[in-house]
Amino acid sequence: MYRALRTFLLPGARCWDTDSERSYQDLFERLDTNKDGKVDVAELRAGLKAMGIFRLGAAQKIVSSGDQNEDGCLDFNEFSKYLKDHEKKLRLTFKSLDRNNDGHIDALEIQQSLAELGIDISQENAQKILQRFELRYHALAGVMDIDGTMMVDWNEWREHFLLYPAQSLQEIIRYWKHSSVLDIGDSLAIPDEFTEEEKSSDRWWKHLVAGAAAGAVSRTGTAPLDRMKVFMQVHSSKSNRISLVGGFRQMIVEGGLGSLWRGNGINVLKIAPETAIKFMAYEQYKKLLSSKGEKIQTHQRFLAGSLAGATAQTAIYPMEVLKTRLTLRKTGQYSGMFDCAKKILKNEGVKAFYKGYVPNLVGIIPYAGIDLAVYESLKGAWLSYHPKDSANPGVMVLVGCGTVSSTCGQLASYPLALVRTRMQAQASLDASVQTSMTGLIKKILAKDGFLGLYRGILPNFMKVIPAVSISYVVYEYMKTGLGISN
Description:
mainly alpha, Recoverin, domain 1, Mitochondrial carrier fold, 2 domains, two-stranded antiparallel sheet, 21 helices, 2% strand, elongated, disordered N terminus, EF_hand_dom, antiport, mitochondrion inner membrane
Protein backbone atom coordinates (compact mmCIF):
# COMPACT_ATOMS: atom_id res chain seq x y z
CA MET A 1 0.00 0.00 0.00
CA TYR A 2 2.76 2.41 1.00
CA ARG A 3 4.76 1.61 -2.12
CA ALA A 4 1.74 2.15 -4.37
CA LEU A 5 0.90 5.52 -2.78
CA ARG A 6 4.50 6.70 -2.97
CA THR A 7 4.72 5.73 -6.64
CA PHE A 8 1.43 7.50 -7.33
CA LEU A 9 2.43 10.70 -5.54
CA LEU A 10 6.00 10.88 -6.82
CA PRO A 11 6.02 9.37 -10.32
CA GLY A 12 9.54 9.19 -11.70
CA ALA A 13 10.83 11.44 -8.92
CA ARG A 14 14.39 10.20 -9.26
CA CYS A 15 14.47 11.40 -12.89
CA TRP A 16 13.18 14.92 -12.23
CA ASP A 17 14.90 17.94 -13.64
CA THR A 18 15.18 20.65 -10.99
CA ASP A 19 13.58 23.21 -13.34
CA SER A 20 10.84 20.95 -14.71
CA GLU A 21 7.52 22.78 -14.20
CA ARG A 22 5.64 19.76 -15.56
CA SER A 23 6.94 17.49 -12.80
CA TYR A 24 5.92 19.99 -10.16
CA GLN A 25 2.52 20.38 -11.82
CA ASP A 26 1.88 16.62 -11.74
CA LEU A 27 2.73 16.43 -8.04
CA PHE A 28 0.66 19.53 -7.25
CA GLU A 29 -2.43 18.13 -9.02
CA ARG A 30 -2.19 14.88 -7.07
CA LEU A 31 -1.86 16.68 -3.74
CA ASP A 32 -4.74 19.05 -4.59
CA THR A 33 -7.43 16.48 -3.86
CA ASN A 34 -10.37 18.91 -3.89
CA LYS A 35 -9.17 20.48 -7.20
CA ASP A 36 -9.51 24.10 -6.03
CA GLY A 37 -6.11 25.10 -7.38
CA LYS A 38 -4.56 25.23 -3.90
CA VAL A 39 -2.94 22.79 -1.49
CA ASP A 40 -3.82 23.42 2.15
CA VAL A 41 -2.29 21.94 5.31
CA ALA A 42 -4.84 19.11 5.51
CA GLU A 43 -4.22 18.01 1.90
CA LEU A 44 -0.46 18.21 2.31
CA ARG A 45 -0.61 16.34 5.61
CA ALA A 46 -2.56 13.53 3.93
CA GLY A 47 0.01 13.38 1.14
CA LEU A 48 2.93 13.33 3.58
CA LYS A 49 1.27 10.61 5.65
CA ALA A 50 0.84 8.51 2.51
CA MET A 51 4.60 8.82 1.95
CA GLY A 52 5.47 7.84 5.52
CA ILE A 53 6.38 11.33 6.74
CA PHE A 54 4.65 11.39 10.13
CA ARG A 55 6.44 14.25 11.86
CA LEU A 56 4.00 16.53 13.64
CA GLY A 57 4.06 20.03 12.12
CA ALA A 58 5.82 19.03 8.87
CA ALA A 59 2.88 20.01 6.62
CA GLN A 60 2.34 23.26 8.51
CA LYS A 61 6.02 24.15 8.20
CA ILE A 62 6.04 23.57 4.43
CA VAL A 63 2.91 25.69 3.93
CA SER A 64 4.20 28.47 6.21
CA SER A 65 7.54 28.52 4.37
CA GLY A 66 6.00 28.75 0.90
CA ASP A 67 2.85 30.79 1.61
CA GLN A 68 3.81 34.21 0.23
CA ASN A 69 0.34 35.80 0.25
CA GLU A 70 -0.42 34.39 3.74
CA ASP A 71 -3.76 32.82 2.81
CA GLY A 72 -2.93 29.53 4.56
CA CYS A 73 -2.57 27.58 1.29
CA LEU A 74 -0.08 27.07 -1.52
CA ASP A 75 -1.06 27.81 -5.11
CA PHE A 76 1.02 26.26 -7.88
CA ASN A 77 3.46 29.18 -8.15
CA GLU A 78 4.11 29.16 -4.39
CA PHE A 79 4.38 25.36 -4.38
CA SER A 80 6.89 25.20 -7.24
CA LYS A 81 8.97 28.06 -5.81
CA TYR A 82 9.13 26.30 -2.44
CA LEU A 83 10.29 23.05 -4.09
CA LYS A 84 12.94 24.83 -6.16
CA ASP A 85 14.31 26.66 -3.11
CA HIS A 86 14.15 23.48 -1.03
CA GLU A 87 16.03 21.47 -3.67
CA LYS A 88 18.78 24.07 -3.76
CA LYS A 89 19.24 23.72 0.00
CA LEU A 90 19.15 19.93 -0.24
CA ARG A 91 21.80 20.14 -3.00
CA LEU A 92 24.07 22.17 -0.71
CA THR A 93 23.58 19.63 2.09
CA PHE A 94 24.34 16.77 -0.29
CA LYS A 95 27.52 18.51 -1.47
CA SER A 96 28.64 19.11 2.11
CA LEU A 97 28.46 15.35 2.67
CA ASP A 98 30.00 14.43 -0.67
CA ARG A 99 33.55 15.34 0.35
CA ASN A 100 35.36 13.83 -2.63
CA ASN A 101 32.85 15.30 -5.14
CA ASP A 102 32.20 11.99 -6.88
CA GLY A 103 28.41 12.43 -6.86
CA HIS A 104 27.85 9.81 -4.15
CA ILE A 105 27.83 9.73 -0.33
CA ASP A 106 29.65 6.75 1.19
CA ALA A 107 29.94 5.47 4.78
CA LEU A 108 33.25 7.22 5.50
CA GLU A 109 31.79 10.57 4.45
CA ILE A 110 28.76 10.01 6.68
CA GLN A 111 31.02 9.13 9.62
CA GLN A 112 33.29 12.17 9.13
CA SER A 113 30.39 14.61 8.75
CA LEU A 114 28.64 13.36 11.88
CA ALA A 115 31.90 13.52 13.83
CA GLU A 116 32.21 17.22 12.98
CA LEU A 117 28.73 17.72 14.45
CA GLY A 118 29.74 16.03 17.70
CA ILE A 119 28.03 12.72 16.92
CA ASP A 120 30.44 9.78 17.07
CA ILE A 121 29.37 6.61 15.20
CA SER A 122 31.32 3.57 14.03
CA GLN A 123 32.07 2.73 10.40
CA GLU A 124 29.72 -0.21 10.73
CA ASN A 125 26.82 1.99 11.87
CA ALA A 126 27.52 4.47 9.06
CA GLN A 127 27.27 1.59 6.58
CA LYS A 128 23.98 0.48 8.15
CA ILE A 129 22.51 3.96 7.61
CA LEU A 130 23.45 3.84 3.94
CA GLN A 131 22.33 0.23 3.55
CA ARG A 132 18.86 0.99 4.91
CA PHE A 133 18.61 4.15 2.81
CA GLU A 134 19.61 2.18 -0.32
CA LEU A 135 17.24 -0.72 0.36
CA ARG A 136 14.35 1.63 0.94
CA TYR A 137 15.00 3.63 -2.22
CA HIS A 138 15.38 0.58 -4.49
CA ALA A 139 12.25 -1.05 -3.04
CA LEU A 140 10.21 2.08 -3.72
CA ALA A 141 11.61 2.37 -7.23
CA GLY A 142 10.90 -1.29 -7.98
CA VAL A 143 14.59 -2.09 -8.56
CA MET A 144 15.77 -5.41 -7.16
CA ASP A 145 19.38 -5.62 -8.42
CA ILE A 146 21.14 -3.60 -5.72
CA ASP A 147 24.82 -3.35 -6.67
CA GLY A 148 26.10 -3.55 -3.10
CA THR A 149 28.15 -0.35 -3.30
CA MET A 150 26.16 1.20 -0.43
CA MET A 151 26.32 4.74 -1.76
CA VAL A 152 23.61 7.37 -2.00
CA ASP A 153 23.48 9.56 -5.11
CA TRP A 154 21.74 12.91 -5.59
CA ASN A 155 18.54 11.41 -7.05
CA GLU A 156 18.13 9.11 -4.05
CA TRP A 157 18.81 11.95 -1.63
CA ARG A 158 16.38 14.34 -3.33
CA GLU A 159 13.64 11.75 -3.77
CA HIS A 160 13.69 10.99 -0.08
CA PHE A 161 13.87 14.51 1.36
CA LEU A 162 11.94 16.51 -1.27
CA LEU A 163 8.75 16.83 0.78
CA TYR A 164 10.39 16.63 4.18
CA PRO A 165 11.03 20.11 5.63
CA ALA A 166 14.59 19.28 6.73
CA GLN A 167 17.13 21.36 4.84
CA SER A 168 20.45 21.55 6.65
CA LEU A 169 22.62 18.60 7.62
CA GLN A 170 21.87 19.31 11.27
CA GLU A 171 18.12 19.04 10.69
CA ILE A 172 18.53 15.80 8.76
CA ILE A 173 20.62 14.34 11.60
CA ARG A 174 17.90 15.31 14.07
CA TYR A 175 15.48 13.51 11.75
CA TRP A 176 17.29 10.25 12.54
CA LYS A 177 18.07 11.05 16.17
CA HIS A 178 16.15 10.03 19.27
CA SER A 179 15.16 12.96 21.47
CA SER A 180 14.68 12.10 25.15
CA VAL A 181 11.58 14.17 25.89
CA LEU A 182 9.32 11.40 27.14
CA ASP A 183 8.42 12.66 30.60
CA ILE A 184 6.83 10.09 32.89
CA GLY A 185 7.29 12.09 36.07
CA ASP A 186 10.66 10.55 36.99
CA SER A 187 13.37 12.61 35.30
CA LEU A 188 16.24 10.17 35.74
CA ALA A 189 17.12 9.55 32.09
CA ILE A 190 20.27 10.77 30.34
CA PRO A 191 19.85 14.38 29.13
CA ASP A 192 19.25 15.23 25.49
CA GLU A 193 22.26 15.79 23.22
CA PHE A 194 22.81 19.02 21.28
CA THR A 195 25.26 19.67 18.47
CA GLU A 196 27.79 22.50 18.60
CA GLU A 197 25.69 24.41 16.07
CA GLU A 198 22.60 24.06 18.27
CA LYS A 199 24.49 25.13 21.38
CA SER A 200 25.85 28.25 19.66
CA SER A 201 22.34 29.29 18.61
CA ASP A 202 19.09 29.61 20.58
CA ARG A 203 17.85 26.14 19.62
CA TRP A 204 19.12 24.37 22.74
CA TRP A 205 17.19 26.47 25.25
CA LYS A 206 14.07 26.36 23.06
CA HIS A 207 14.28 22.56 23.13
CA LEU A 208 14.62 22.68 26.93
CA VAL A 209 11.66 25.05 27.23
CA ALA A 210 9.56 22.80 24.98
CA GLY A 211 10.56 19.77 27.05
CA ALA A 212 9.74 21.53 30.33
CA ALA A 213 6.31 22.59 29.02
CA ALA A 214 5.64 19.05 27.82
CA GLY A 215 6.63 17.68 31.22
CA ALA A 216 4.39 20.16 33.04
CA VAL A 217 1.30 19.26 30.98
CA SER A 218 2.11 15.53 31.12
CA ARG A 219 2.58 15.48 34.91
CA THR A 220 -0.57 17.51 35.49
CA GLY A 221 -2.60 15.16 33.30
CA THR A 222 -1.39 12.08 35.16
CA ALA A 223 -1.18 13.62 38.67
CA PRO A 224 -4.07 11.56 40.14
CA LEU A 225 -2.29 8.33 39.20
CA ASP A 226 0.98 9.67 40.57
CA ARG A 227 -0.69 10.54 43.89
CA MET A 228 -2.26 7.08 44.01
CA LYS A 229 1.17 5.52 43.45
CA VAL A 230 2.68 7.46 46.37
CA PHE A 231 -0.38 6.75 48.55
CA MET A 232 -0.04 2.99 47.93
CA GLN A 233 3.74 3.01 48.36
CA VAL A 234 3.41 4.47 51.84
CA HIS A 235 0.11 3.10 53.20
CA SER A 236 -0.55 -0.21 51.41
CA SER A 237 0.56 -3.51 52.97
CA LYS A 238 -0.59 -7.10 53.44
CA SER A 239 -2.60 -6.10 56.48
CA ASN A 240 -3.91 -2.88 54.86
CA ARG A 241 -4.59 -3.66 51.23
CA ILE A 242 -5.54 -0.61 49.16
CA SER A 243 -7.14 -1.18 45.77
CA LEU A 244 -7.06 1.36 42.96
CA VAL A 245 -10.78 2.16 43.21
CA GLY A 246 -10.75 2.07 47.02
CA GLY A 247 -7.74 4.37 47.18
CA PHE A 248 -9.31 6.98 44.88
CA ARG A 249 -12.57 6.80 46.84
CA GLN A 250 -10.70 7.28 50.11
CA MET A 251 -8.81 10.33 48.80
CA ILE A 252 -11.93 11.96 47.33
CA VAL A 253 -13.97 11.41 50.52
CA GLU A 254 -11.15 12.93 52.62
CA GLY A 255 -10.38 15.98 50.47
CA GLY A 256 -12.69 16.20 47.48
CA LEU A 257 -11.89 15.80 43.77
CA GLY A 258 -9.22 18.50 43.84
CA SER A 259 -7.22 16.48 46.37
CA LEU A 260 -6.18 14.12 43.55
CA TRP A 261 -3.79 16.86 42.38
CA ARG A 262 -2.07 17.39 45.74
CA GLY A 263 1.68 17.76 45.28
CA ASN A 264 1.38 18.46 41.55
CA GLY A 265 2.29 22.14 41.87
CA ILE A 266 5.78 21.51 43.21
CA ASN A 267 6.18 18.48 40.92
CA VAL A 268 5.75 20.85 37.95
CA LEU A 269 7.78 23.63 39.57
CA LYS A 270 10.89 21.45 39.94
CA ILE A 271 11.06 20.59 36.22
CA ALA A 272 12.78 23.82 35.14
CA PRO A 273 15.66 23.86 37.69
CA GLU A 274 16.23 20.13 37.37
CA THR A 275 16.37 20.27 33.56
CA ALA A 276 18.71 23.28 33.53
CA ILE A 277 21.09 21.85 36.15
CA LYS A 278 21.14 18.44 34.48
CA PHE A 279 21.92 19.95 31.06
CA MET A 280 24.74 22.18 32.32
CA ALA A 281 26.23 19.42 34.50
CA TYR A 282 26.06 16.94 31.60
CA GLU A 283 28.10 19.23 29.35
CA GLN A 284 30.74 19.71 32.05
CA TYR A 285 31.00 16.00 32.90
CA LYS A 286 31.42 15.13 29.20
CA LYS A 287 34.39 17.52 29.02
CA LEU A 288 35.94 16.07 32.18
CA LEU A 289 35.52 12.43 31.13
CA SER A 290 36.81 12.74 27.55
CA SER A 291 40.31 13.74 26.48
CA LYS A 292 40.66 17.06 24.71
CA GLY A 293 40.01 16.72 20.98
CA GLU A 294 38.64 13.18 21.28
CA LYS A 295 35.02 12.14 20.82
CA ILE A 296 33.19 10.97 23.92
CA GLN A 297 32.52 7.23 23.98
CA THR A 298 29.18 5.56 24.78
CA HIS A 299 30.20 4.46 28.29
CA GLN A 300 31.54 7.96 29.03
CA ARG A 301 28.26 9.48 27.82
CA PHE A 302 26.29 7.15 30.08
CA LEU A 303 28.52 7.96 33.06
CA ALA A 304 28.26 11.69 32.35
CA GLY A 305 24.47 11.37 32.14
CA SER A 306 24.26 9.46 35.43
CA LEU A 307 26.50 12.00 37.20
CA ALA A 308 24.46 14.87 35.74
CA GLY A 309 21.27 13.23 37.02
CA ALA A 310 22.83 12.79 40.45
CA THR A 311 23.95 16.43 40.50
CA ALA A 312 20.51 17.70 39.54
CA GLN A 313 18.81 15.44 42.08
CA THR A 314 21.16 16.64 44.83
CA ALA A 315 20.30 20.27 44.07
CA ILE A 316 16.53 19.86 43.89
CA TYR A 317 16.06 16.98 46.33
CA PRO A 318 14.42 19.11 49.06
CA MET A 319 11.68 19.79 46.50
CA GLU A 320 11.26 16.02 46.09
CA VAL A 321 10.71 15.67 49.84
CA LEU A 322 8.21 18.55 49.80
CA LYS A 323 6.39 16.93 46.88
CA THR A 324 5.99 13.66 48.80
CA ARG A 325 4.81 15.40 51.98
CA LEU A 326 2.34 17.60 50.07
CA THR A 327 1.07 14.59 48.11
CA LEU A 328 0.35 12.66 51.32
CA ARG A 329 -0.97 15.59 53.34
CA LYS A 330 -4.41 15.57 54.90
CA THR A 331 -6.86 18.43 54.51
CA GLY A 332 -5.68 21.43 56.54
CA GLN A 333 -2.29 19.95 57.42
CA TYR A 334 -0.34 22.52 55.39
CA SER A 335 -1.54 25.80 53.91
CA GLY A 336 0.93 25.50 51.05
CA MET A 337 4.46 24.68 49.94
CA PHE A 338 6.18 27.31 52.11
CA ASP A 339 4.16 26.37 55.17
CA CYS A 340 5.13 22.73 54.64
CA ALA A 341 8.84 23.62 54.35
CA LYS A 342 8.67 25.82 57.46
CA LYS A 343 7.04 23.09 59.57
CA ILE A 344 9.50 20.40 58.42
CA LEU A 345 12.44 22.69 59.21
CA LYS A 346 11.04 23.58 62.63
CA ASN A 347 10.03 20.08 63.74
CA GLU A 348 12.61 17.85 62.02
CA GLY A 349 15.58 19.99 61.06
CA VAL A 350 17.52 20.42 57.80
CA LYS A 351 18.34 16.68 57.55
CA ALA A 352 14.68 15.91 56.88
CA PHE A 353 14.99 17.53 53.46
CA TYR A 354 17.38 14.75 52.41
CA LYS A 355 15.50 11.73 53.75
CA GLY A 356 15.67 8.94 51.16
CA TYR A 357 18.52 10.63 49.28
CA VAL A 358 20.73 7.51 49.11
CA PRO A 359 18.18 5.12 47.50
CA ASN A 360 17.18 7.92 45.13
CA LEU A 361 20.80 8.37 44.06
CA VAL A 362 21.42 4.63 43.68
CA GLY A 363 18.25 4.28 41.58
CA ILE A 364 19.50 6.66 38.89
CA ILE A 365 22.05 4.20 37.48
CA PRO A 366 19.77 1.19 36.80
CA TYR A 367 17.00 3.46 35.53
CA ALA A 368 19.13 5.47 33.08
CA GLY A 369 21.22 2.48 31.98
CA ILE A 370 18.33 0.10 31.32
CA ASP A 371 16.19 2.84 29.74
CA LEU A 372 18.96 3.70 27.28
CA ALA A 373 19.94 0.09 26.54
CA VAL A 374 16.37 -1.15 25.99
CA TYR A 375 15.50 1.84 23.80
CA GLU A 376 18.49 1.33 21.50
CA SER A 377 17.91 -2.45 21.39
CA LEU A 378 14.22 -2.11 20.48
CA LYS A 379 14.88 0.55 17.86
CA GLY A 380 17.73 -1.51 16.39
CA ALA A 381 15.54 -4.63 16.25
CA TRP A 382 12.74 -2.73 14.52
CA LEU A 383 15.12 -1.25 11.95
CA SER A 384 16.65 -4.65 11.20
CA TYR A 385 13.19 -6.04 10.38
CA HIS A 386 12.04 -2.92 8.49
CA PRO A 387 15.13 -1.73 6.58
CA LYS A 388 13.01 0.02 3.93
CA ASP A 389 11.55 2.38 6.55
CA SER A 390 14.72 3.05 8.50
CA ALA A 391 15.10 6.69 7.50
CA ASN A 392 11.76 7.43 9.16
CA PRO A 393 10.74 4.88 11.80
CA GLY A 394 7.65 6.97 12.55
CA VAL A 395 6.24 8.55 15.67
CA MET A 396 4.50 5.43 16.97
CA VAL A 397 7.66 3.31 16.71
CA LEU A 398 9.79 5.83 18.62
CA VAL A 399 7.10 6.48 21.23
CA GLY A 400 6.56 2.73 21.58
CA CYS A 401 10.28 2.12 22.09
CA GLY A 402 10.43 4.98 24.60
CA THR A 403 7.42 3.70 26.51
CA VAL A 404 8.78 0.15 26.83
CA SER A 405 12.31 1.31 27.72
CA SER A 406 11.00 3.72 30.38
CA THR A 407 8.83 0.94 31.82
CA CYS A 408 11.80 -1.45 31.99
CA GLY A 409 13.91 1.23 33.66
CA GLN A 410 11.20 1.77 36.24
CA LEU A 411 10.85 -1.96 36.92
CA ALA A 412 14.55 -2.12 37.79
CA SER A 413 14.59 1.00 39.96
CA TYR A 414 11.07 0.83 41.46
CA PRO A 415 12.01 -0.87 44.78
CA LEU A 416 14.53 1.92 45.42
CA ALA A 417 11.89 4.52 44.51
CA LEU A 418 9.47 2.93 46.98
CA VAL A 419 12.09 2.91 49.75
CA ARG A 420 12.93 6.56 48.97
CA THR A 421 9.24 7.56 49.26
CA ARG A 422 8.81 5.62 52.52
CA MET A 423 11.87 7.34 54.01
CA GLN A 424 10.66 10.76 52.87
CA ALA A 425 7.31 10.13 54.55
CA GLN A 426 8.66 8.44 57.73
CA ALA A 427 8.90 11.49 59.95
CA SER A 428 5.39 12.64 59.12
CA LEU A 429 4.00 9.16 59.86
CA ASP A 430 5.91 8.13 62.97
CA ALA A 431 8.58 10.39 64.44
CA SER A 432 9.80 7.61 66.78
CA VAL A 433 10.78 5.22 63.98
CA GLN A 434 13.55 6.34 61.61
CA THR A 435 14.77 3.32 59.63
CA SER A 436 17.81 3.25 57.35
CA MET A 437 17.59 2.18 53.69
CA THR A 438 18.76 -1.41 54.34
CA GLY A 439 16.67 -1.64 57.50
CA LEU A 440 13.56 -0.53 55.65
CA ILE A 441 14.15 -3.02 52.82
CA LYS A 442 14.52 -5.86 55.35
CA LYS A 443 11.37 -4.71 57.15
CA ILE A 444 9.33 -4.64 53.91
CA LEU A 445 10.60 -8.07 52.83
CA ALA A 446 9.84 -9.57 56.24
CA LYS A 447 6.37 -8.06 56.45
CA ASP A 448 5.13 -8.13 52.82
CA GLY A 449 7.60 -10.32 50.92
CA PHE A 450 9.33 -9.44 47.65
CA LEU A 451 6.12 -8.08 46.11
CA GLY A 452 6.00 -5.53 48.91
CA LEU A 453 8.80 -3.68 47.12
CA TYR A 454 6.41 -3.12 44.19
CA ARG A 455 3.44 -1.58 46.04
CA GLY A 456 1.85 1.06 43.78
CA ILE A 457 3.35 -0.34 40.58
CA LEU A 458 -0.09 -0.63 38.92
CA PRO A 459 -0.96 3.11 38.89
CA ASN A 460 2.67 3.77 37.99
CA PHE A 461 2.34 1.57 34.88
CA MET A 462 -1.05 3.05 34.08
CA LYS A 463 0.39 6.54 33.83
CA VAL A 464 3.29 5.65 31.49
CA ILE A 465 1.42 5.53 28.16
CA PRO A 466 -0.69 8.68 28.70
CA ALA A 467 2.32 10.53 30.15
CA VAL A 468 4.57 9.62 27.21
CA SER A 469 1.85 10.40 24.66
CA ILE A 470 0.95 13.76 26.22
CA SER A 471 4.58 14.84 26.59
CA TYR A 472 5.41 13.88 23.00
CA VAL A 473 2.44 15.74 21.47
CA VAL A 474 2.94 18.87 23.60
CA TYR A 475 6.68 18.83 22.89
CA GLU A 476 6.10 18.75 19.13
CA TYR A 477 3.52 21.56 19.26
CA MET A 478 5.82 23.63 21.48
CA LYS A 479 8.68 23.17 19.02
CA THR A 480 6.44 24.40 16.20
CA GLY A 481 5.36 27.41 18.30
CA LEU A 482 8.96 28.25 19.17
CA GLY A 483 10.07 27.92 15.54
CA ILE A 484 12.29 24.84 15.98
CA SER A 485 10.09 22.18 14.40
CA ASN A 486 12.06 19.98 12.02
